[in-house]
Design a protein that fits this description.
Elements lengths: L14 E10 L4 H12 L9 E4 L5 E10 L2 H12 L6 E2 L1
Antiparallel strand pairs: 1-3, 1-4, 2-3
């Protein structure tokens, strides 16, 4: 991955940053994804997770608004979420 100089970043750090995670409906999906997010943002409040089921009810979308402190933190969080076997997509 190409390193982006801080002055060229579109994100100012620290800032609140929304991350959407989608996966198949599973009773522990929200809890497991929240645990992953907390590894990268220990101040994250699990009560703020937004959940939206798909129209057919087979998938669920979660929105986490994390406190982004660096590009590295966001990149590592995206990699951890994207690499998780319960996750279909991360935006």
């Amino acid at each position: 991955m190409t390193e982006i100089p801080p002055e060229d970043s579109l994100i100012e750090y620290p800032s609140d940053f929304p991350i959407k995670v989608m996966g198949k409906v599973h009773p522990e999906f929200a809890q497991v994804m929240t645990e992953v997010v907390l590894q990268f943002d220990p101040s994250f409040d699990p009560a703020t997770v937004e959940m939206r089921p798909s129209s057919a009810g087979n998938y669920i979308g979660l929105t986490f608004v994390v406190r982004a402190t660096s590009r590295e933190q966001l990149d590592e969080l995206y990699r951890a979420l994207h690499g998780h076997d319960m996750v279909s997509m991360v935006l």
